[in-house]
Design a protein that fits this description.
This protein has a five-stranded mixed beta sheet. A four-stranded antiparallel beta sheet has the order 1-2-3-4. A two-stranded antiparallel sheet has the order 5-6. The protein has three domains: 22-88, no CATH class; 102-176, Nuclear Transport Factor 2, Chain: A; 181-317, Glutaredoxin (3-Layer(aba) Sandwich). With 334 residues, the protein is α+β, with helices and mostly antiparallel strands. The chain has helices spanning 22-31, 33-41, 57-66, 74-79, 85-88, 102-118, 168-177, 210-218, 241-250, 254-264, 277-287, 309-317; strands spanning 127-129, 135-140, 143-148, 154-155, 160-161, 166-167, 190-194, 199-205, 225-231, 294-297, 302-304. Helix 2 (33-41) crosses helix 3. It is elongated, with a radius of gyration of 23 Å. The protein contains twelve helices and eleven strands. The longest helix is centred in the first third of the chain and has 17 residues, at 102-118.
């Protein structure tokens, strides 16, 4: 039931490691290979996760070796060498350069140029150095991957600092998912003020998206909020949505026409005028929004999917300080 648009060409992730028994394979899927390896090696424990038992001593030894890396063991395999058990106990290496140093920035810029030359059909975003020497972080829309200096080897997954017990990828995604609300082109959105309008909310919505219609119905009870609705038709799913979005924007009363279409399924009279619909689609792409509905709070948090009114109310009430950025859909999307 979840349908989203994917921007650009995605590189295929590496295949799962063969040979793990079914329980371990399931646990690997749940928590990721590096954490599973450390669990098998007995070096860490996680609350709520039973300590797995390696099927053979060879499996445990391999897991101990794998625990030295902070990403999946496919990287070591691709490089043609397996880490030793002794290396698993060695302290992790640290990059001598700060990610913001001129040398680091120059190296990241060089990798960005190389990647674009090697994979011209893939839309790459920022490239940054990581604390893992020789490994660079690259963004592709809302997705993150890790790549070596040659641009040949990619790692899709999470990068962990096992010593600090930090999921570096999750932390980075939280930062990436924040939107500077003040920079949104609010003049390109329909504006509705309810009550004192003290809270602000932006919604990217498709007039032919059934989940957007459900959301529009659910949020009718929200009070004291200013809602900015950006018309974002997904023409690959709803071919007529672009024409409908333009007609809604060009109506004499945009908000009334929008609500009549979304809440009462009334037909939208055709109309044409200068409109921001194409700009909204481009904006969504830049923000990494690939499905509707997607909500953005005043402090820049994203909430994908048709969440319930109670869920949205609680989400709006949360302070930006220490709040967790939601990147997984909280309801169905198109």
């Amino acid at each position: 039931t979840n349908e989203t648009r994917t921007w650009g060409t995605q590189l295929a992730p590496t295949r799962p490691l063969p040979g793990l028994p079914s329980p371990e394979r399931a646990l690997r899927t749940r928590i990721g290979a590096p954490v599973l390896a450390a669990l098998l090696a007995g070096t860490i424990t996680l609350p709520g996760v039973a300590q797995p038992t390696a099927s053979t001593s060879a499996t445990k030894a391999a897991a101990t070796a794998t625990a030295t890396a902070t990403a999946t063991a496919t990287t070591a395999t691709a490089a043609g060498a397996a880490p030793s058990v002794a290396a698993a106990t060695a302290p992790p290496p640290h990059s001598p350069d700060s990610p913001d140093s001129p040398d680091s920035r120059a190296a990241a810029d060089a990798i960005a140029e190389r990647l674009q030359a090697l994979y011209p059909s893939t839309r790459f975003g920022t490239v940054n150095v990581t604390a893992w020497p020789g490994v660079f972080e690259v963004s592709m829309g809302a997705n993150l991957a890790y790549v070596d200096a040659s641009g040949q080897y990619f790692l899709f997954g999470h990068l962990y600092d096992m010593k600090a017990q930090r999921d570096l990828t999750a932390e980075r995604k939280e930062t990436m998912a924040r939107v500077d609300f003040a920079q949104l082109p609010l003049n390109d959105a329909m504006k509705e003020v309810r009550g004192n309008g003290s809270r602000v909310l932006a919604i990217f919505s498709d007039p032919d998206c059934p989940y957007c219609q459900r959301l529009e119905s659910d949020i009718q009870g929200l009070a004291d909020v200013t809602i900015y609705t950006f018309l974002m038709p997904l023409v690959s799913l709803h071919p007529a949505a672009h024409t409908k979005a333009v007609s809604i924007w060009c109506a004499s009363d945009r908000l009334a026409t929008w609500q009549a279409a979304m809440l009462r399924a009334q037909a939208v009279p055709l109309a044409e005028c200068p409109h921001p619909v194409d700009r909204n689609i481009a904006l969504a792409e830049r923000l990494g929004i690939n499905g509707t509905p997607t909500l953005i709070s005043g402090d820049g948090r994203m909430l994908p999917g048709a969440a319930s009114r109670d869920r949205i109310e609680a989400w709006l009430q949360r302070s930006s300080e220490g709040s967790h950025v939601v990147t997984e859909p909280q309801g169905p999307m198109r």
